[in-house]
């Protein structure tokens, strides 16, 4: 599937010392792998071919030459909303084909009436579409291959073991807050892999009695919110939306009570707590209000946190409060940095509290506009817009420009590892600066409109 350089880098997933290599030590191999990926994928991913032709890039001989071929994260939201509102599944499939590394003409579109059915039809054809769960705008639609799901799942388990003392075979009991996270093929594959590695199959976790949040329900919510804002929503549509929202909120509140009851009942067992800080903190507050704290919980409880605050407003000591509630010792805390557009995890180390970048993930801090690699790559600390090239990606292009601002340190970390590492002060441009303008985004959108 890949060239020799990319194969060498991705094979390091199994190496316990994979984070000991410096950026400079891997630079030559990474550039060779980037060039391999371009040669392999440019004629299969239409959007990449157009970018390469437009920029006059036919090979990659430096990191700077890779930058014009990075896609803004908004590229995966570039489908016209009318494809959804008018249920133009043929057009949506054609759009997907512009960002997919494999043809989408094998997707069976017969008898499809809703987007969830379309996602299922894509999966049946080997095109696994994971949609972001953001409810403030269009969902990003990220296509992946089975290889991608398998690699991400394996990486998720190994990264957890690297960043904590949580181990395969721990036979833990799954617990934690109930979240309204959309079901996606990627989340499902990762969840199954983590459960198989760390949980006791004879002791299933709490299963709430709430309707799953599907891509279709998210899309309907977003579409109706837009119609309400535009003044085009019908009264019956608004009433149905409000009733559905009320029912879901009530079911979620009841499920949260059930989750608190469950974790208290299992407090003597070795737990595997999973969630986001925004839901984990109020979950801990509810447990404290019931009179329970660290003294009541197992000393080897594990905590898996993915993502940042996601705009949640929490007190300054939110982390310590959670740790002290569930008796989470430092070596059993696992936190990672990642994003839906990537297939790889960046685990946080214990000593330096920094997120480490694996060898097959090329970190490319850019200027705010997202058009130029920041000076100083490979030495000292460099800050800028987070961009990456994930050499493990198979079903779509691995290069993405994100909406995050990061500080990358290319010097050895306090934990002793020499890999590039990212400090725990990540923020989103849209949150703190009020905008998220990536220079090439408009051009990419124009490409997509022309092709789909």
Could you please describe the fold and organization of this structure?
It is a single chain. By secondary structure, this protein is α/β, with parallel strands linked by helices. Among the domains are: about 5-75 and about 355-450, no CATH class; about 150-215 and about 255-335, 3-Layer(aba) Sandwich (Rossmann fold). It contains 15 helices and 14 strands. The chain has helices at about 5-10, 25-40, 45-55, 65, 80-85, 90-100, 115-125, 145-165, 185-200, 215-230, 235-265, 275-290, 320-325, 430, 440-450, and strands at about 70, 130, 140-145, 175, 270-275, 300-305, 335, 345, 355, 360-365, 380-390, 400-410, 420, 425-430. The strands form three sheets. Strands 1, 9, 10, 11, 12, 13 and 14 form a seven-stranded mixed β-sheet that branches. Strand 6 (about 300-305), helix 13 (about 320-325) and strand 7 (about 335) form a beta-alpha-beta unit. Helix 1 (about 5-10) crosses helix 2 (about 25-40) and helix 8 (about 145-165) crosses helix 9 (about 185-200). The longest helix is centred in the middle third of the chain and has 31 residues, at about 235-265.
């Amino acid at each position: 599937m890949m060239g020799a350089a990319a194969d060498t880098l991705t094979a390091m997933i199994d190496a316990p010392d994979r984070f000991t290599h410096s950026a400079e030590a891997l630079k030559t191999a990474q550039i060779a792998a980037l060039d391999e990926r371009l040669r392999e994928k440019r004629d299969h991913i239409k959007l990449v071919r157009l970018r390469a032709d437009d920029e006059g890039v036919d090979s990659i001989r430096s990191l700077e030459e890779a930058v014009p071929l990075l896609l803004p994260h908004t590229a995966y939201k570039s489908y016209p909303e009318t494809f959804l509102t008018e249920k133009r599944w043929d057009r949506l499939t054609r759009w997907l084909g512009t960002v997919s590394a494999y043809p989408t003409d094998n997707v069976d579109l017969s008898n499809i009436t809703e987007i969830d059915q379309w996602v299922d039809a894509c999966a049946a054809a080997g095109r696994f579409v994971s949609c972001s769960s953001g409810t403030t705008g269009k969902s990003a639609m990220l296509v992946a291959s089975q290889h991608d799901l398998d690699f991400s799942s394996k990486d998720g388990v190994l990264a957890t073991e690297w960043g904590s003392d949580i181990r395969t075979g721990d036979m833990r009991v799954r617990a934690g807050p109930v979240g309204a996270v959309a079901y996606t093929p990627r989340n499902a594959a990762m969840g199954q892999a983590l459960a198989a590695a760390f949980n006791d199959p004879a002791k299933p976790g709490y299963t709430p009695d709430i309707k799953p949040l599907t891509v279709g329900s998210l899309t309907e919510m977003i579409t109706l919110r837009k119609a309400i804002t535009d003044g085009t929503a019908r009264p019956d549509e608004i009433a149905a939306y409000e009733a559905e929202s009320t029912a879901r909120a009530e079911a979620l509140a009841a499920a949260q009570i059930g989750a608190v009851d469950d974790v208290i009942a299992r407090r003597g067992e070795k737990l595997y707590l999973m969630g986001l800080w925004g839901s984990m903190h109020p979950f801990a507050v509810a447990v404290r209000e019931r009179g329970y704290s660290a003294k009541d919980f197992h000393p080897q409880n594990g905590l898996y946190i993915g993502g940042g605050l996601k705009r949640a407003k929490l007190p300054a000591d939110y982390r310590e409060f959670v740790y002290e509630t569930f008796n989470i010792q430092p070596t059993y805390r696992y936190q990672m940095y990642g994003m839906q557009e990537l297939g790889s995890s960046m685990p946080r180390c214990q000593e330096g509290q920094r997120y480490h970048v694996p060898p097959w993930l090329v970190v490319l801090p850019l200027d705010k506009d997202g058009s130029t690699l920041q000076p100083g790559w490979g030495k000292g600390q460099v800050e800028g817009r987070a961009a990456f090239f994930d050499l493990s990606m198979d079903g779509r292009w691995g290069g993405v420009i994100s909406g995050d601002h990061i500080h990358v340190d290319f010097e050895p970390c306090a934990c002793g590892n020499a890999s590039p590492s990212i400090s725990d002060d990540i923020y989103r441009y849209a949150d703190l600066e009020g905008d998220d303008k990536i220079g090439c985004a408009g051009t990419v959108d124009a490409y997509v409109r022309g092709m789909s």
